[in-house]
Amino acid sequence: xxxxxxxxxxxxxxxxxxxxxxxxxxxxxxxxxxxxxxxxxxxxxxxxxxxxxxxxxxxxxxxxxxxxxxxxxxxxxxxxxxxxxxxxxxxxxxxxxxxxxxxxxxxxxxxxxxxxxxxxxxxxxxxxxxxxxxxxxxxxxxxxxxxxxxxxxxx
Length: 155
Known about the structure:
The chain is an alpha+beta fold and 155 residues long. The protein has a domain at 34-137: Class I glutamine amidotransferase (GATase) domain (Rossmann fold). It contains three helices and seven strands, in the order αβββββββαα. The protein has helices at 21-26, 118-122, 124-137; strands at 28-29, 33-43, 57-65, 69-70, 74-85, 91-104, 107-112. The strands form two sheets. Strands 3-2-5-6-7 form a five-stranded antiparallel β-sheet. The longest helix is centred in the C-terminal third of the chain and has 14 residues, at 124-137. The radius of gyration is 16 Å and the shape is globular. The N and C termini lie far apart (37 Å).
């Protein structure tokens, strides 16, 4: 997420500019993440083929990435909410997009900022999200979210 940055990462990059090339591809610009704390994942677009059948869940300690901007070509699929503490010790609720689909000049791009720790990556819910994201990006999910023949579990 934070690779290939040019200039001030906290300023929105103009779509199509040299500074925005990486973010244009991803569909979202981020500049930082919070502390390792649980994140409540909420699927906000349950009609997208990628998210059909996925249930909300709360991760173990993970890093919640901020959203400087979401590009018009991106379709947010899930948000993450995390309760952190401000410098004065009072609670702060952070709520950011954590999974999305992007159309990069006709190329499907799936991205998520979840998955920093082995326990998360081993979680069946995370694996379902990433698997469905890859299948969608490769055109192997139909419009109803069904895995196309030959790409799902063997029966």
